[in-house]
């Protein structure tokens, strides 16, 4: 690859593996004020401590938007689980940010609300983005855990779910269409594709651990055109922690002891993922 540049530029080349990629950072060279002199040897010091990982938790919905309503109200369950998970993560020395820490919306306009959540995930100080949700289905017979990462929804069932989480109805369809154009662009973006693979791995780890800890069946991981995940540059997933309209699972989700288990399952998944080093800062 040959890159022609005008002017003085400094290049830093780094190589990463799994997936294999080469990252070249280019920055304008600062004017040298004095001719180069022999620099004294830098003092020998211990390598700096690695920075604390930062996890952004996004309890979905809130304020004017209750999310799904069944045996539980989605916005209440996801906030409670997020606050429990925050405590558990902090105990492990992991820094936590929340998109909301009480019953509030980020904007009464759904598009704006989801955009603000996504913008928080876009901040360079965040290593992982986890959006928390409760599932629902027209038949009210499904139960289990599903975890989504950003990509084109592959079947009608997932698409219905994506539209619901993107605001539902005509609005949900519009935002899904918008997210879909981004999902199509990923096919040509090698860095976004690498991040998608990390996100898929995070989704699998979270889903497996959540299911093991709670006993709720693991239904799998799926790509979906979620508006809130569309520009994430770090591993980002949307967790559907269970079905709030299932007679058994919905009632379990109302129980604080069970919610603590959900938080513990998510904690276990996050720790496993971070231990495997599959995240970049
Ligand atoms: Zn939701």
Descriptive report:
This protein is of the alpha/beta class. It has one domain (54-275): Aminopeptidase. The chain is 40% helix and 20% strand. It is built from 7 helices and 8 strands, in the order βββαβαββαααββαα. A 6-stranded mixed β-sheet has the order 4-3-5-8-6-7, sandwiched between helices. A hairpin with a 4-residue loop joins strand 1 and strand 2 (21-28). The model has no long low-confidence stretch (mean pLDDT 90).
Indicate the structural class.
alpha/beta
The SSE order reads EEEHEHEEHHHEEHH
Strand order of the largest sheet: 4-3-5-8-6-7
* Rg (CA only): 21 Å
Number of domains: 1
Counted by DSSP, the helix tally is 7
Tell the overall outline.
globular
CATH architecture descriptor: 3-Layer(aba) Sandwich
Blueprint (SSEs and pairs):
Blueprint: E1 9-16, E2 21-28, E3 54-59, H1 74-91, E4 95-98, H2 110-122, E5 128-135, E6 145-150, H3 156-165, H4 169-186, H5 190-214, E7 218-224, E8 236-243, H6 247-253, H7 256-275
Parallel strand pairs: 3-4, 3-5, 5-8, 6-7
Antiparallel strand pairs: 1-2, 6-8
The structure holds zinc ion.
The site of zinc ion has 6 residues, from loops.
């Amino acid at each position: 690859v040959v890159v022609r540049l005008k002017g003085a530029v400094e290049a830093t080349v780094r190589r990463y593996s799994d997936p294999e990629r080469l990252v070249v950072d280019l920055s304008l060279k600062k004017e040298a004020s004095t001719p180069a002199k022999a620099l004294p040897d830098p003092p020998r010091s211990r390598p700096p401590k690695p920075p604390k990982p930062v996890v952004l938790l996004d309890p979905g919905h809130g304020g004017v938007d209750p999310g799904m309503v069944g045996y539980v109200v989605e916005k209440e369950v996801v906030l409670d689980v997020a606050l429990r998970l925050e405590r558990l993560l902090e105990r492990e020395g992991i820094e936590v940010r929340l998109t909301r820490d009480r019953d509030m919306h980020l904007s009464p306009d759904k598009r704006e609300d989801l955009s603000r959540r996504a913008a928080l995930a876009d901040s360079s100080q965040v290593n992982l983005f986890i959006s928390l949700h409760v599932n629902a289905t027209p038949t009210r017979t499904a139960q289990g855990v599903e975890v989504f990462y950003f990509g084109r929804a592959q079947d009608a069932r997932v698409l219905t779910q994506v539209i619901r989480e993107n605001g539902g109805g005509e609005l949900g369809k519009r935002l899904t269409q918008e997210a879909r154009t981004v999902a199509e662009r990923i096919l040509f973006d090698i860095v976004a594709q690498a991040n998608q693979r990390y996100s898929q791995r995070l989704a699998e780890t979270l889903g497996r651990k959540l299911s093991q800890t709670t006993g709720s069946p693991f239904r799998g991981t799926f790509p979906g055109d979620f508006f809130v995940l569309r520009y994430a540059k770090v591993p980002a997933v949307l967790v559907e922690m269970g079905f709030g309209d299932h007679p058994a699972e919905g009632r379990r989700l109302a129980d604080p002891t069970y919610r603590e288990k959900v938080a513990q399952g998510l904690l276990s998944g996050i720790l496993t993922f971070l231990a495997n080093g599959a995240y970049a800062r």
